[in-house]
Amino acid sequence: MSIHIELFSLYTCFNSLGGDYLNKTILDTEKLYYGFPIFILGYKDDRWGYNFTTSSSSYTLDNFLNVGLSNQGNASKQIKKHGYFTLNIPTKDYLEQIKIGGFNSGADKFNFSNSFQYDLSDKMDVPIIKECVITLECKVSQIIEEDSIVHIFSTIERRLVNSKLIKDNHLDNNLLNPVLYLGDGNKRSFKFLSSE
């Protein structure tokens, strides 16, 4: 699978539709990603000590974070066993590392050349990815398996944010620019918001 990467402006994207938003066609595809932030899950790994994986299926409400993963992957098995993980938000500067996390299930990903670096949390036994601008430290509260998917429900125990993204003790939304994941069963892409 190849990943296409490009910079785009939301205005340009919507404007290119020519204002014809009501003309819809059935898209026969098994997957549809309509712009989800890429994140890196850091977790304790029985074989390698600590590891990470790349994903895009999550949502938060208040102090709750829910993540969806394949039930066949190493990450879901290790997180189910140990009960803790970190969710880390990378930027476009780390596309190579994002790909390492996404295409090497079960491998010792921190040991790849040019991989992410990490520190251990002082709150729980999980890695905090140094290069990522946001880290959420999470404790698993419930796991639901459905078909080949694992839904991991967790509580956010602590939020760590790069100090450059904080202004007057609040997140500066204008400076946060996560990598977005879009596409369907045929082709998937990484995209970024422009500064315009």
From TrEMBL:
Gene3D superfamilies cross-referenced by the UniProt entry: Electron Transport, Fmn-binding Protein, Chain A
Record-annotated membrane-spanning stretches: none
Keywords: Flavoprotein
Annotated signal peptide: none
Molecular-function GO terms, alphabetical: FMN binding; oxidoreductase activity, acting on the CH-NH group of donors, NAD or NADP as acceptor
Flavoprotein keyword on record: yes
SUPFAM superfamilies per record: FMN-binding split barrel
Cofactor or coenzyme needed: FMN
Location of the Flavin reductase like domain: 62-158
Family to which the UniProt record says this protein belongs: Belongs to the flavoredoxin family.
Protein name: Flavin reductase like domain-containing protein
Taxon lineage: Bacteria, Bacillati, Bacillota, Bacilli, Lactobacillales
